[in-house]
Prior knowledge:
Elements: H1 3-17, E1 19-21, H2 22-29, H3 33-45, E2 49-52, E3 55-58, H4 69-73, H5 77-88, E4 98-101, H6 105-108, H7 111-118, E5 123-127, H8 130-136, E6 142-146, E7 150-151, E8 158-159, H9 161-168, E9 174-178, E10 181-183, E11 187-190, H10 193-205, E12 208-212, E13 224-227, E14 234-236, H11 243-251, E15 255-257
Helix pairs in contact: 1-3, 2-3, 9-10
Amino acid sequence: xxxxxxxxxxxxxxxxxxxVSVRDLAAQFDITTETVRRDLQALEESGALRRVHGxxxxxxxxxxxxxxxxxxxxxxxxxxxWIADRAALAIPAGFTGSVLLDAGTTxxxxxxxxxxxxxxxxxxxxxxxxxxxxxLAGREGIELSVLGGRVRSVTGAAVGIDTVRQIEALxxxxxxxxxxxxxxxxxxxxxxxxxxAVKKAMVRSARRVIALVDSSKLGGESLTRFxxxxxxDVLVTDAEPDPALAAALxxxxxxxxxx
Length: 259
């Protein structure tokens, strides 16, 4: 096989899977690990991927990459709807407790399924997301509280020290949180430090923490960690985690709900 053909196949594998390892590529193409590393270096120089320890990740998974709300709404919509429908089952029918709802498009997909679970109950929902608040305002069975703070244009999330302090004064029954990345070694992470502080407060304040993370984010690491694996109770995702991540989740007693 010519190198150009091999580079094209490696770049395609990274785009499809999000991450590749040097060892797997060496076995797949029957080449040395040194040759794989030279190929990855060439692809990184062309902007096709980013090298990391043991392999490479898609260029769009760098630690500071953060899609805007509009772009994320159009990305993996069916997977996010499945995750939201499954996560909503954590709420008993007729629930009359309190829910803390993180910003994000996956947690946003939870609004309608959540309303369906409430039924004849009365639920307090607290959120830092402008879009979630607009969707929940005036809905029957919902007592809505909106956290104040500076609203980030890229995510529509209220952030800042005042937002964190408001969360620290709460003890909700359930927190539903999103993440930009989740890995066995680093836990749950996000690019922005202020948003990470808000998510960290949400995780620490709740009696039960449910993370909604689509499978494209599994195995990745963003700049700022906001939760270790042992700080979440349930991971809801649309595909089985890889063996290393699955083992780490099991070791930390995290329930995994997947298809």
